[in-house]
C-alpha cells in the first residue's frame, strides 16, 4: 500500500510505514459500508474486533472530494477514532461522537506535506487526550494517554508506530492496526486479507476494482487537507533583520 508522500530531507532515520484507519465503535457493517459507498471510498472494512469496526484506507486521498481518512471518519456514525501515521514520523488522531468532532492531535505538525518552514514540531492537541480516552471508553486513562501523546520521540531510535502501539494497548484497541501497511497481503498478528471486505470506489468485487483503477491516477495526485489547518508557527524575528 503506497501513499504519495516522502519524508523531508534531514528527517532522521529511514522512512517507515504510512497507513490510516478509522475505528467505528460497535459499528453496523451494513450502515458503514453504505456510507463508504456514498463517499466512493477505496480500502478495506474488517470484522468487529474488541467492539470496534476497522475501516482501513488504501492511500492518501481515498474518497470523493479529496477526502483522506480524517474526512471519511467525520462522515461515519457513532463514536469514531481516526488514526493516521505518515512514514512513521507523524501520528494523527481525530475523534467524533455522533458526528460532533471532539478533538484533534498531531505529534509533529511540521511534517505535514506543504507545511511552512516556521511550523512548530511540538505535539499539538495533547489536551484532547481526555476526549480520546472517553470516546474509547476509558476516561480514567486520560492522564496516562496525555503523557504518551506529549512525549517528543527521537526519530533515530523510536518511530510513531511504536507510540501508536502503546496507545492502542492503553485504550484496549486492536493492536494489529500498526501492521495494516502490509495490505493487500495478510496482516501480521491480524486478520488475513481475504477476511476483509475490499471496496474500490465504494463498491465491492470486480466493478469496484475496475473503477478504482480508473480513479487511482487522479487520487494519487491529490493530497488530503492537513489535520491541523492552521498549525502554530515559530513567529520569531529573522535575526538578519535586526
Low-confidence spans: 1-13, 236-242
Roughly how many Å is the radius of gyration? Answer: 18 Å
The number of helical segments is 6
Number of strands: 7
Beta percentage is 15-25%
End-to-end Cα distance, whole Å, is: 49 Å
Shape: globular
Describe this structure in words.
This protein is α+β, with helices and mostly antiparallel strands and 242 residues long. The protein has one domain. 24% of the residues lie in helices and 17% in strands. It has six helices and seven strands, in the order βαββαβββαααβα. The chain has helices spanning 29-38, 69-73, 129-135, 142-150, 160-170, 205-220; strands at 19-25, 43-45, 52-57, 79-86, 90-97, 100-106, 197-199. The chain has a seven-stranded antiparallel beta sheet, with helices on both faces. β2 and β3 (52-57) form a beta hairpin.
What's the short version?
Helices cover 24% and strands 17% of the residues. The protein is built from six helices and seven strands. The longest helix has 16 residues, at 205-220.
Task: Break the fold down into its secondary structure elements and pairings.
Elements: E1 19-25, H1 29-38, E2 43-45, E3 52-57, H2 69-73, E4 79-86, E5 90-97, E6 100-106, H3 129-135, H4 142-150, H5 160-170, E7 197-199, H6 205-220
Antiparallel strand pairs: 1-3, 1-4, 2-3, 2-7, 4-5, 5-6
List descriptors.
6 helices; alpha+beta; about 240 residues; 7-stranded antiparallel beta sheet
Amino acid at each position: 500500500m503506497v501513499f504519495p508522500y516522502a519524508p523531508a530531507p534531514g528527517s532522521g532515520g529511514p522512512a517507515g510505514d504510512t497507513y490510516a484507519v478509522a475505528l467505528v465503535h460497535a459499528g453496523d457493517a451494513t450502515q458503514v459500508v453504505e456510507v463508504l459507498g456514498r463517499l466512493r471510498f477505496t480500502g478495506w472494512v474488517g470484522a468487529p474486533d474488541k467492539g470496534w469496526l476497522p475501516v482501513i484506507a488504501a492511500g492518501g486521498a481515498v474518497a470523493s472530494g479529496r477526502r483522506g481518512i480524517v474526512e471519511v471518519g467525520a462522515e461515519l456514525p457513532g463514536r469514531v477514532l481516526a488514526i493516521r501515521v505518515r512514514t512513521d514520523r507523524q501520528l494523527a488522531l481525530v475523534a467524533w461522537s455522533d458526528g460532533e468532532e471532539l478533538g484533534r492531535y498531531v505529534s509533529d505538525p511540521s511534517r505535514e506535506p506543504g507545511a511552512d518552514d516556521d511550523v512548530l514540531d511540538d505535539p499539538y492537541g495533547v489536551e484532547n487526550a481526555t476526549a480520546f480516552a472517553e470516546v474509547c471508553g476509558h476516561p480514567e486513562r486520560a492522564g496516562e494517554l496525555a503523557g504518551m501523546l506529549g512525549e517528543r520521540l527521537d526519530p533515530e531510535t523510536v518511530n510513531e508506530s511504536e507510540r501508536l502501539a502503546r496507545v492502542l494497548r492503553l485504550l484496549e484497541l486492536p493492536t494489529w492496526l500498526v501492521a495494516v501497511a502490509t495490505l493487500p497481503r495478510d496482516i501480521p498478528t491480524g486478520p488475513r486479507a481475504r477476511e476483509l471486505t475490499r471496496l474500490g470506489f465504494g463498491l465491492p468485487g470486480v466493478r469496484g476494482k475496475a473503477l478504482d483503477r480508473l480513479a487511482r491516477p487522479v487520487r494519487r495526485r491529490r493530497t488530503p487537507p492537513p489535520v491541523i489547518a492552521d498549525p502554530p508557527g515559530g513567529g520569531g524575528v529573522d535575526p538578519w533583520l535586526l
